[in-house]
Amino acid sequence: MSLEQIGSVKSFGGDQLRFTHRSDACKCDMTFAVYLPPAAQNGKVPVLYWLSGLTCTDENFVTKACAQAYASEHGVAIIAPDTSPRGEGVPDDPDAAYDFGLAASFYVNATQAPWAEHYQMYDYIVEELPALVNDSFSIDGTRQGISGHSMGGHGALTIALKNPGRYKSVSAFAPIVAPSRCAWGHKALGGYLGEDRDAWAAYDACALIADAPQRLPLLVDQGGADSFLEEQLMPHLLEEACTKAGHPLTLRMQPGYDHSYYFIATFMQDHVRHHAEAICA
Q: Beta strands 14-23 and 28-36: pairing type?
């Protein structure tokens, strides 16, 4: 599978790169960003996958999160994929809404027409992209963590919980922790997966916690002034599920912070350190 480089810039001694490639999972061209720290020039480095939220591309995190400095410090590569398939023939929300279709994949494998043909983002993130990354860069795929924001936080939590042993660390910023119980989730999971709520539970962090075969510690930061806090994010549900299951969770409510990348950039250093402690060992 060939990569086409479409961007390159120096940052904190490392290289912030951008690539496009043909995806077998999504049946379209996909784009992703990769930050290679200076340590990658001397050997393989561990890797952190970042999943962005609604309306985002691979570029939002790269330009706004201030992560390169901390990745360089700890010798960690960062992979930031796009948030959905795109291109000719890829369906979008008929009303062009921001919370379904393009830039709103919810990181699931869609089963419903017309979404199923292209919206196979779970397989893309878990299987196809890591295989490509591990073959193409100086990255050690046995030492990887996963993180994300909002819809991407939902993706990071569910993917880590569903794949014991694959990830050594997981964290999230303002994640959608219970999509089966919020409007964003009802629309996305209902559209991509149909009305069978048992299928929804397979992509719901709060539902997955009870039977998680690995008790990987969760680090979650949530802004107290987030306009989506009460109706869409509901972190108290994750706290309740973790307490009931005995699953380790550090939930940090950050007073005054909203849902934006100003919030993410403020606490990014803590999250990179959290991952580095697990994947750099």
A: antiparallel
